[in-house]
Amino acid sequence: MFVGTPKEKFFYHNTLLCLVRALRGQNVTVDLRNDAYICGNISNVDGFMNISFTNLVYCDPQGNEYSFENLFVQGRNIRYVHIPESMSVVSTIKKELGGSKKPVVDKKAVNESRKVKKALKQHLETVALLENK
Questions:
Q1: In the chain, how many domains are there?
Q2: Which residues span the domain enclosing 97?
Q3: pTM strictly above 0.85
Q4: pLDDT tens column, 97-122
């Protein structure tokens, strides 16, 4: 269950943030907007895709590598998150969101369907009358 502000919950349920959140505890490579990248263990992901890393290596655009124990990256600076090949994307999303729920029948859609059927019936009757004349 995701805990956060209503805006964070919206992002979690309506974007692929749930997939990134499922990567907690795994070593992942994240490309940044400034052409640098980070390889490390994701310790936390919040509702705005801000990521906290532990035991990581930061590689700057010039190719220099720096080791850090902890690092925080704002979501707006992330360009790409590399998903491990061993991870099934669809099953991970379903697992993170709590499985599939039964679809809710929209009563309004049923009523509209009856209206459409009635309108089609009237249209066919009108066409039949015009053909008989």
A1: 2
A2: 6-101
A3: no
A4: 886 455 555 555 555 677 778 877 87
